[in-house]
Fold these 2 entries.
Entry 1:
Amino acid sequence: MRIDLHTHSTVSDGTLTPAQVVAAAAEAGLDVVALTDHDGIDGWADARAAAERLGVGFVPGVELSCRWYAVDPAIPLHLLAYYVDPAHAELAAEMARVRSAREHRAERIVELMRADGVDVTWDEVQRYAAGATVGRPHLAQALIRRGLAATVADAFVPSMLGERWRLPKEDTDVFRALSLVLAAGGVPVFAHPRATKRGRVVPDELIKQMAGAGLFGLEADHEDHTPEQRAEVRALAADLGLVVTGSSDFHGANKPVKLGANLTAREAYERIRAAALM
Ligand code: AMP
Ligand code: FE
Ligand code: FE
Ligand code: ZN
């Protein structure tokens, strides 16, 4: 079975609609695909309908923007949450809070860019986001249109979004996120835990604490992990009794990675499903 448990649509910073992500998954020969937009679940209904039509297994998910606040400066991390109850009021409210904090942050980044002489407007960035959870890839669009970057990845160099115009998000405390996901009946998996190319990563000690707080799995096979990092994540998962997943973290045209670039084993997928049903 070909199972890809981490993708993004136009509900966050991907470029395909939720239904198009699922159609592309079917075309790529996937049997199961999860939709895991940043901090929002508005794509589930369309994705699920498309999956039923096309005979693809659908896993409803979300990628929560979290931070480990016990260290200074706090370290950001991403928590994938599968099968959360969409009607869980506290989780929904927390995701809405993070989305609105993202808007303020993007607006402030626009100000930083303008102060450096880049004539971007907040209006314009909002048009690129088109109601989605705003992220830096939407700001990258403005830079691409001005010829300041050729691709989204190029816009993330240190002289632009990667460092100079980087502002922290007001993310959810990672332990609060874990408890919200569990309270909402969901299954939490730590996304790309060793992705040093994205910035600082958390120590194994924190991952151990997260496991004690109900973390269910670790994403090992991810394009931002080297072979050594994947092996480290697998070993840690074995130590802590956690499930191992793999995914493309597909973002449509915003990233070169293809659907199905990395996969999750069937037994890991089945353990996640069984945990959701408990
Ligand atoms: P944000 O969530 O607003 O902090 O933006 C982070 C998002 O930007 C990630 O989820 C990726 O989609 C994207 N991103 C981060 N770094 C890069 C990169 N080097 N190249 C392309 N996209 C990136
Ligand atoms: Fe993203
Ligand atoms: Fe992520
Ligand atoms: Zn992602």
Note: Residues 66 and 171 are 5 Å apart (CA to CA).
Entry 2:
Amino acid sequence: MSERTNFTQTRGAFIVVEGLDRAGKSSQCEHLRDYLQELGHAVKYIRFPDRTTAIGKLIDGYLRGQSQLDDHSIHLLFSANRWEIARLIEEDIANGITVIVDRYSYSGAVYSAAKGNPSLSLDWAWQPEIGLPRPDTCLFLRISPGEAAKRGGFGVERYENEPMQSRVRELFQTLFDLQPNGDTQFIDAGRSFQEVSEEIRGKAADCIARVGIIGPLRKFASIPA
Ligand code: Z5A
Ligand code: MG
């Protein structure tokens, strides 16, 4: 993106970054935020789960294995954690601020459905996301299990194990195939940090430039059965 990029527009862009463990989501989001800020663009970075809220603290305890919760209950808490911040996202975007979000509803539906609970299908898991702000673009950072392993072994949190991650990988693809055409863009995250960040910057710039064409911020709809 050139330094002369014109960011004049009516609203901010809503950019989501998704991907498997260690794909580099958080470091790339922080880098993109800093880059856009340096260019004088108003930008905010939000991570889900947001572990700072009352709901987020329940999620944090669950992920660390300090509490046990029914699969449906924890799923709805993850979704509630997005709903409690959704209005702020909408307000920021209306005020011309670009919002970068690290994991969103896609992770929400996919990780819960990957547990294999027969009463928690992908379709069921998507339901509480309907009506949340829909990203202008979702950048999915693709990484192979081998490349991810080079960035460190699995951590101690729940879901950080190979069988879960491989089900998550498949379900992400299933979910993206059900999303409206063009919402998701795939990025090879197995390359150097700089190569990946250059591609992300370019796609973010395109998204910001297209916001006027997209029109008002959209909402998530149901996924086809
Ligand atoms: N979860 C859920 O179940 N339901 C929901 O609704 C939501 C989430 C929102 C915690 O998420 C868990 O919550 C997660 C999904 C579930 N479970 N799992 N698995 P989290 O987002 O809090 O987890 P995290 O630990 O922050 O993210 P992460 O996925 O493990 O990592 P990352 O953000 O993708 O990567 P990173 O921290 O930026 O980088 C990882 C390391 O790789 C780090 O040392 C970097 O310096 C290095 N790195 C990054 N890029 C590169 C490149 N290009 N080359 C080499 N090294 C690199
Ligand atoms: Mg992260």
Note: Confidence is low (pLDDT under 50) at residues 1-8.
